[in-house]
Automatic annotation (TrEMBL):
It holds the Pfam family MarR. It comes from Oenococcus oeni AWRIB429. CDD domains: HTH_ARSR. This is HTH marR-type domain-containing protein. InterPro entries: ArsR-like_HTH, HTH_MarR-typ, MarR/SlyA-like, Tscrpt_reg_MarR-type_CS, WH-like_DNA-bd_sf, WH_DNA-bd_sf. Residues 5-140 form the HTH marR-type domain.
Length: 174
């Protein structure tokens, strides 16, 4: 590893370990503080596809309908969503965001936008464009790297057994 790539890895590692970076990029990102992640996912889904049934939501989010019902109950208590009887099929109840729900999501997006602006305030537009372009390339490279041999060597060195990782499978030679 060259001195520059070593420094890059340390800097990226430092970002990943920085509690402020985690708060910005972790489960609380996009203003989801104070709200269950599932509730936030549901609200973002309804923002995109307003007027879905519990069954449709369960299918899209790959969760049980009872879990969706529980999330909807909590969001309804806070007036973020409402249940509306489908005009075409009265047996179906649709879940829709309320004005308060839309306003809540917009407010949280605005807060996240403000934070992003503050974090990158010391960079020029050209520097931001360059950083974005370079990080996308690093991300592409990271996706192309086969970590199987690296992980195998790391595990084998630490425990003295021969493990091989490929395509997500673990092979053990004792």
């Amino acid at each position: 590893m060259s001195e520059v790539t070593n420094e890059l890895m340390k800097t990226i590692g430092g970002l990943a370990k920085n509690p402020n970076f985690y708060l910005m990029m972790g489960p609380h990102h996009r203003g989801q503080r104070g709200h269950h992640r599932g509730q936030a996912r549901l609200m973002h889904l309804l923002e995109k596809y307003d007027g879905l049934s519990v069954g449709e939501i369960a299918e899209i989010l790959d969760v049980r309908p009872s879990s969706v019902t529980s999330l909807v109950d909590k969001l309804e208590e806070n007036d973020f969503v409402e249940r509306i009887v489908d005009e075409i099929d009265k047996r179906i109840t649709l879940i829709k965001l309320t004005k308060k729900g839309h306003a809540f999501l917009k407010n949280k997006k605005d807060e996240a936008d403000d934070l992003s602006e503050e974090i990158f305030a010391r960079l020029s537009e050209e520097e931001k464009d360059t950083l974005l372009r370079l990080l996308k390339r690093v991300s592409e490279n990271l996706n192309d790297v086969d970590f199987g041999d690296y992980i195998s060597k790391m595990v084998n060195d630490s425990i003295g057994r021969h493990f091989k990782f490929d395509d997500g499978d673990i092979h053990i030679n004792i």
